[in-house]
Design a protein that fits this description.
Blueprint: H1 2-73, H2 76-85
């Protein structure tokens, strides 16, 4: 009888170790899968961040161009160009040559 009890105890112990090992392996698999998913999300977010950074730089450059254009539109040279091109005005004594059709 003592042998049977020892055998049962040993058998339960093996089964318990098998269950614990199975649970640990399953947890490792789940953690590995989630780690891969998180790595993919991280790469996606890094790509989006890079794209947004490029857009920010482009908008900053555009802002500079707009500011420069705003300064230019307030100059006398710009006003004269608009007056000549849009309104056909000329300085006194200036001769205009037109292309023939």
């Amino acid at each position: 009888m003592a042998r049977r009890a020892a055998y049962r105890k040993k058998r339960h112990n093996r089964f318990g170790m098998f269950l614990v090992t199975t649970v640990v392996v399953m947890m490792l698999v789940v953690v590995a899968i989630k780690s891969i998913e998180l790595q993919q999300k991280l790469e996606t977010y890094q790509a989006k961040e890079l794209l947004l950074q490029e857009q920010i730089e482009a908008e900053q450059e555009r802002t500079k161009e707009i500011e420069e254009y705003e300064k230019y539109t307030q100059t006398k040279k710009y006003i004269e160009e608009v007056a000549k091109d849009k309104l056909g005005l000329v300085h006194e004594g200036e001769i205009i040559f037109k292309e023939g059709n």
